[in-house]
Specification:
The chain has 15 helices and twelve strands. The chain is α/β, with parallel strands linked by helices. Among the domains are: about 140 residues, Leucine Dehydrogenase, chain A, domain 1 (Rossmann fold), CATH 3.40.50.10860; about 140 residues, Rossmann fold (3-Layer(aba) Sandwich), CATH 3.40.50.
Amino acid sequence: MAISDVMTTSFYQGVLRQFDTAAELLGLDQELRVILRTPKRELTVNFPVRMDDGSVRMFQGYRVQHNVNCGPAKGGIRYSPEASLDEVRALAMLMTWKCAVLGIPYGGAKGGVNVDRRELSKAELERLTRRYATEISVLIGPDLDIPAPDVNTDAQIMAWIMDTLSMHSGHNVPAVVTGKPVVIGGSEGRVEATGRGVFIVAREVAKHLSLPFVGANVVIQGFGNVGSVTARLMHDAGCKIIALSDIYGAIYNPNGIDVNLALQYVKEHGKLLGLPGSQEITNAQLLETPCDILIPAATEGQLTHANADRIQTKLIVEAANGPTTPEADVIFQKRGIPVVPDILANAGGVTVSYFEWVQGRENFFWSEKRVNEQLEEMMQTSIGHVLHEADTKAIPLRMAAYAVAIQRVALATEMRGIYP
């Protein structure tokens, strides 16, 4: 493949390529391949929002349902100036495999609005959210498609969506979204779930690889909800966090960063830069810092053909969605660096979202202790399946996770058949 081809490979093309590789490995029937790689529904909406100064601004949003053969569609909603239909398609497909690899009875979906939320007031953000929720309401429901938070969305935005759709229905519909505030039907443990899942996966895979976990040097790109929770849990477990980054920059301390101090510093100053005892480095330097475990927890496309040869780690755990391109994957395989794929590594969030949905349907809510115990059990079971598949077939962890997931969705598709 020419370098120009590599550089123009989109996120969606990369996700399709990973599916095709796994489908070939499984010897999947050609007709099933076509069904499973094609999104079921795609909705693009253009809608006006009244701004605080009285003007009207148009926004574009998306909701894609990739596959619903295993259950209702499930997937987050992101607010980003980079949001596009292709990105949402890719993320929806990843959600299908993520739910399947965990054995959760959901299909995959994703949504997004092309907007920089930092430019909006809280009132404008609420009006945009309620209008977007109304536009996609034809697809949304507890038995149809259940949104959740994603990049630049949170519990408050989920609360507005739930309230909007409840007003449309004429009664309270708590199970229409997950990731809500606990006071209106959210689940204990949901905020920390994705980061906790990353921690569990990193710990278990390190153990499987005979890589010492306590005392391990860890680099984490991204210090938002997922990265900060992962950092804190790993720090508390005895790992040494030597480098961290957020949207403003990266910091490094070879002797270890006090994560609790970093959390307090960010709360007071809004960024990591300037944390006492640390030195400023670039994002490229952070990714290439020698370490035992590298955790990309920011955005897609961070580990590419351009930097994969310079990555100096013993294990990569993908906390973000799609941080490693297919070209980088090939380089890591040749170099013998294991990569725990996003569909397994960051599946803690959708797992606890499933718990929240179950609690909402039953109107019976669990303690945080029970949520965390159930999460630990499900994650460990799924990790075991993927590691067994990888060892038995002598394939990379990504292909093993895809194989487990695709076989489950393929079987569900065959069992249901084609209507009519």
